[in-house]
Design goal:
Layout lengths: L1 H18 L6 H21 L3 H23 L6
Helix pairs in contact: 1-2, 1-3, 2-3
C-alpha cells in the first residue's frame, strides 16, 4: 500500500509539472498537483522505508511546483 501511494504521488507530481509548461494545461496541472500534494502528504505520514520517503519528497515538490504554476497561469477552471 505504501509503495503504491509513493508511486501515485510521483506520477501526479510529474504530470502536474509537465502540464504546467503546456499551453492550456493549467487545469490539469492544478488538479493533478493538488491530488499529488495531498496524496504525498498522507503517503509521507504512513511511509515505512527511506526509499518511499525519497519518492514522496520528489512527488510532493513536483506537485507543489506544478500546482503553483498551474494556478499562476489560469487556475483550476478553463
Amino acid at each position: 500500500m505504501e509503495n503504491i501511494l509513493a508511486i501515485v504521488t510521483v506520477v501526479c507530481g510529474l504530470t502536474a509539472f509537465v502540464a504546467a509548461f503546456v499551453p492550456g494545461g493549467h487545469v490539469v496541472a492544478s488538479w493533478a498537483g493538488t491530488l499529488g500534494f495531498g496524496t504525498g502528504l498522507y503517503s509521507q505520514y504512513v511511509s515505512a522505508t527511506t526509499p518511499q520517503r525519497a519518492l514522496n519528497i520528489v512527488g510532493i515538490v513536483a506537485s507543489f511546483v506544478g500546482v503553483a504554476l498551474g494556478i499562476a497561469r489560469g487556475g483550476f477552471l478553463p
